[in-house]
Amino acid sequence: MKKIHILILQAFIRPFMVCFCIVMFVLLMLFLFKYIDDLIGKGFEWYVLMELIGYQCAVQLSMALPLSMLLSSIMTFGNLGESYELVAIKAAGFSLRKAMTPLIFFVTLFAAGSFLFSDYILPVVNLKMGSLLWDVRNKKADFLIKSGIFNSTIPGYSIRAKSKNENGTILYNLMIYDHRSGNATNNVLLAKEGFMQNSADNNYMILRLKDGVRYEESRAKNAKRYDPRQQFTRFRFKETEQKFDMEAFQMKRTDESFFKTHHSMLNLKQLKMYTDSNRLQLDSIRRNIYLEAKNYVTYLSPYYHEKQVAQIKVKKFNDFLTDYVPKDQRRMLISNALGQVQQMNNVFEMKEPDYKSYVEKDIRYNIEFHRKFTLAVSCLLLFAIGAPLGAIIRKGGLGLPVVVAIIFFLIYHIISTMSEKAAKDGSLDPIFGMWMAIIVLSPLAMFLTYKSTTDSSLFDIEQYKLKLEAAWKWITSKFGKRLSR
């Protein structure tokens, strides 16, 4: 029995590692394609990109792990069924469930590890990933000069070069407008040639200019505010340097404390604390709305204050309440009631944004709370679907198993995504929203497990043809005689 257990474990681990690497690579490519515009042309260091990809690998575990579990389980038991090793195991007197016991234990440990990962490690990774991605997306692109086009990315300057060499380090026929003082025409620099390089600390860009002239126009020191007299200065130079501050092009790391309260960056303990605090705020808003509305409902008219009208008993359902009020008081009553209703409506409109904000936070906290558990349970569920499915179809390799795995994973992913979106919108309870895919597919896993243990040929087309032929013969024998009559 130990040899059988080792055989099944070895047959599962290898495809699982291969499938996991392939799925993770595909998901990373999708991530890079999504943010390709935010990464290209900004001069990131290699370690920044590696850090971003490393965080993304951890974030994508929630999708890569269940899909890899489903695909590898189908491939493993498909290969064992195709090579008749499952038949040999059953012929030796061991049931499929008994042979799968160590593998079930291994997958359970894997699911428990994924739960611990989603509770302790994933919130930290989401925090690091969120802050880094925010800084990456907000970083300016590298300074780039295009021939014949003004570049205004450096604050306070507009630079144009008529042409440049192949490396882009030497610029020809330069024109630089310095409008840091607010007027672009106050300071203009012209040069025939400029060599561009960065300083040693990369904080500045240095332009070594040759054969040029600088034009400066300024107001006299003692001139009055509206005095039109100005000073005009012209400098000619053979060689000079112009230094530009490149601080705007450097990536600045945002303080991670600004992102710590996001629901995806909290563990179970923090989620419970934030949920309790949020519900206290909700209860406070509801109490205030109730007390204010109660005051308006209680004092609807001067009749109640003066106690001139006793409690009204409506005789007929179709009667109006104003029919029981004297005619000379009806207009006052209706006007007063409309005013009070308008005031109540104003109160509700004022409280509605805060109330909606806290309700949305409560929903997000609940969704994230259940997400910690659904990752582990989804691994068990998709293994429970894939293992018996592979034993039934008895096909290995990357052909039919991949197609079947993608179909079932798409079903799981579509149900999960739609139900989670419905939960975020408030049209579905967060518990059902997060567990809907597992609830729907659990009976399927039980059915496939039953079929695999009873050696059912679920995907045998010939069997279905025979059943259809038998059904057609029964229909023709039953109803053919009646039609002939």
UniProtKB/TrEMBL annotation:
A Pfam entry, by short name: LptF_LptG
Membrane-spanning segments: 12-33, 53-78, 99-122, 373-393, 400-419, 431-450
Subcellular location: Cell membrane
UniProt entry keywords in alphabetical sequence: Cell membrane, Membrane, Transmembrane, Transmembrane helix
Thylakoid as UniProt keyword: no
Bilayer topology term: Multi-pass membrane protein
Primary localization: membrane
Name of the protein this chain belongs to: LptF/LptG family permease
Organism: Sphingobacterium bambusae
Phylogenetic lineage: Bacteria, Pseudomonadati, Bacteroidota, Sphingobacteriia, Sphingobacteriales
